[in-house]
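Summarise what follows for lecture notes:
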Amino acid sequence: MWSIPTLRSVTRRTRPPPADLTGFRHIAVALLGLSATTGCRQQPSFADLRPAGEATRTVTVGERDRPSPRLSREARPRHHAGRALASQPWVPAPSVTDARDGLGPLYNAASCLTCHVRGGASPAPAGGGRVPAGVTVRLGADPVYGAQLQTQTVDVRARYGARTDGAPAEGEARVVWARSTFLYPDGDEVELRAPKLAVEALAYGPLDADTRPSLRMAPPLYGAGLLASIPDEVVAARADPSDRDEDGISGRLPPGRFGWKGEQVNLREQIALAFRRDMGITTTAFPDDPCSSPACRALPSGAGASGVELPESLLDLVVEYVAGLAVPKALAANPVHTREEGGRRFVEAGCADCHAIAPVRTRSPRAFVDGLEIRPLTDLLLHDLGPGLDDGSGAPLAREWRTPPLWGLSVRSEGFLHDGRARTLEEAILWHGGEGAAARARFASWSRSARQQLLAFVQGL
């Protein structure tokens, strides 16, 4: 399991620390608030190590895609068949492996688990240089390159630098980190970094003048089936787009349930779109290859009798695999700080205003995710997180992000937020602005010991 890292801090008493902000109103809202499932007043239990109830199990960093204990014997063959499809690389068409051909012609990865490493998140873009495989570059809606930069190609001649009229990769991206220092009132310092992207070697002409590239991490797969099973009315009840209660939190309903901005309606659509964007594999929902030229579209396809490369029956298997993954069990304790201490700090800071602590009950036709009381620590709403996390696109949603669930953090070590800029959870907190600015300010005002209590709790989730 991942051990909790120490803070990269330097003690430097430059001024007397301010008194802690107690956040009494946030405690009242979260500790005495209405449960989203029962309408009764509830005290949160921070001692519970099973955030997904019976769908929780112990996992390791090296094996984060374990099947849920709730999967029946009858459901397991389909789950494992879906995992095989998600883990084995696809190949270009035509091929004797006609069940897995049709990769590309342009793509970013050859398999689902290239990006979602061992069922977890994509590898973090650690140092500067070329963006690693598994981290994608979003372009918004570039008129030539589309929504996402495709950095690989099945055209062997183009891959090795030869001139070709086929389908060269669209380009490559390099990242340089702009570094800054966050200074706590007590004198401690933490280095922050923000990505500066350069898209180079563009094969089909320059990007549109309005296109603003932005990095995207692939989120963990575990828990997705449970998020899909949270009833719509539960999510809608938490929305407050006009901030009627004047608490500074105005979460609003996203278009869908999945994606960093809640763009995709359901789990099936999210997976089908990932096949199309990341691997160039077509489905009935997204039947066109991500090509930037007529020559690319003219290359061989792996489409079968259904007219697409991934028929509905195989897409179903991948959906069942993702839906049936277990959520990692939380860590029992930290050597110094208890879960109860950290949980109280989590509420006191105001983190629970978006990362909702009230349990919800799932509802689904899938028996293995139905009727569970879960606590993913998300309201699944869009929140404005301020200019620091603006993706640069200029779009109306540029500063808005769907609250990510916080379960499974104990088996993650780096690469937080949408672009992986935060190397630690402390850095992720310090990037919160907009609706998260008040919570960040409370956290920053505390003593180092109090901050460590909250961090130990979150790092053990």
